[in-house]
């Protein structure tokens, strides 16, 4: 019988009191499960750290991508496994692993994978000391996330339409489209001096639009180092062409002269004379003038159905 901690974000979009009870009951059939709820930002990290310190076999996380990110940061370099469940509005990481959208269905799949020992250590991206599971967004991408978080009360009910609407309004009113926002310096000595929008990816897809994956770096994987996609123009026709190609998965972004795509990166730096917005795994983290990126292999024990 394994000892498991069920970390629940009760404010997440898909979490209900009923789902908490049923999921705990599912895991309780064969294991000892303790349930705790998050109450503030960063709380899931502390709860996961405590689970590892108390030698729990795993931490089941029911919440959105932000809650999963926090819990993962608390489990880095420990032998306590992360058991992810979809509880948010988009659930990029859970869907990337192939889990069902329904939390209870996903719980059954994850429980079976855990009992079958379908788990291994995977690599994580690191940005200014904080780990990320699937991506970090810089510039325009993060500015959109910032605008979405200002309407977090609507996110539960209008997730994908809200993101689409905020992407348009951010492009129109909330982001300078005339002047580059950052530069990127790579370990091979090359650099990009005119970045507007960058995503550093630990997995693919970048996100989902409804049920459609938004593929921008098919070579990104938990079993490889980081990939980057840097966009050097915010012209409407360019963005529309890139978005269409990513959704249809029939266009290589690297073929566009305004896109720089690189793979298997272990270190690089993003910097600017003026602070730029950034986000990790869908959580807006404010503005900084420098981010040091790295990749750490075998950082997290993950249940992978």
CATH class of the largest domain: Mainly Beta
Uncertain parts: none
* Beta-strand residue percentage: 35-45%
Secondary structure tally, helices = 9
CATH topology of the largest domain: Tumour Suppressor Smad4
Q: How many beta-strand elements?
A: 16
Give the CATH architecture of the largest domain. Sandwich
Largest beta-sheet details: 10 strands, antiparallel
List keywords for this structure.
305 residues, alpha+beta, Rossmann fold, Tumour Suppressor Smad4, ten-stranded antiparallel β-sheet, 9 helices, globular
Task: Describe this structure as you would to a colleague.
With 305 residues, the chain is α+β, with helices and mostly antiparallel strands. The chain folds into two domains: 3-117, Rossmann fold (3-Layer(aba) Sandwich), CATH 3.40.50.10330; 130-296, Tumour Suppressor Smad4 (Sandwich), CATH 2.60.200.40. The chain is built from nine helices and 16 strands. It has helices at residues 17-28, 43-53, 65-75, 92-96, 103-115, 140-149, 152-155, 159-174, 236-248; strands at 3-8, 32-37, 58-63, 81-86, 119-127, 130-132, 135-139, 182-186, 191-195, 197-201, 207-209, 212-214, 226-231, 259-265, 267-280, 283-303. It starts with a strand and ends with a strand.
């Amino acid at each position: 019988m394994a000892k498991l901690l069920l970390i629940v974000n009760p404010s997440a979009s898909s979490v209900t009191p009923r789902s908490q009870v049923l999921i705990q009951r599912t895991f309780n059939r064969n294991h000892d499960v303790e349930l705790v709820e998050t109450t503030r930002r960063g709380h899931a990290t502390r709860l996961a750290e405590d689970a590892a310190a108390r030698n729990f076999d795993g931490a089941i996380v029911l919440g959105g991508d932000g809650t999963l990110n926090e819990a993962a940061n608390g489990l880095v370099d420990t032998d306590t496994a992360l058991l992810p469940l979809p509880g948010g509005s988009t659930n990029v990481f859970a869907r990337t692993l192939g889990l069902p959208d329904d939390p209870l269905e996903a719980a059954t799949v994850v429980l079976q994978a855990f009992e079958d020992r379908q788990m291994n250590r995977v690599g994580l991206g690191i940005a200014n000391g904080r780990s990320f599971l699937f991506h970090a967004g810089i510039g325009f991408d993060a500015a959109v996330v910032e605008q979405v978080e200002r309407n977090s009360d609507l996110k539960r009910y209008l997730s994908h339409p809200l993101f689409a609407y905020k992407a348009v309004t951010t492009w129109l009113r909330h982001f300078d489209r005339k002047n580059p926002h950052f530069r990127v310096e790579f370990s091979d000595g090359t650099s990009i001096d005119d970045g507007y929008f960058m995503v550093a990816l630990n997995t693919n897809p970048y996100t989902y639009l409804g049920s459609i994956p938004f593929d921008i770096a098919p070579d990104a994987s938990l079993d490889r180092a980081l990939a980057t996609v840097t966009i050097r123009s915010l012209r409407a026709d360019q963005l529309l062409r890139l978005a269409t190609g990513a959704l249809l998965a029939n266009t290589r972004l690297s073929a566009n002269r305004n896109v720089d795509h690189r793979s298997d990166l272990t270190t690089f730096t993003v910097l600017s004379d003026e602070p730029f917005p950034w986000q990790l795994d869908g959580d807006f983290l404010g503005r900084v003038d420098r981010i040091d990126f790295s990749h750490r292999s075998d950082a997290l024990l993950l249940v992978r159905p």
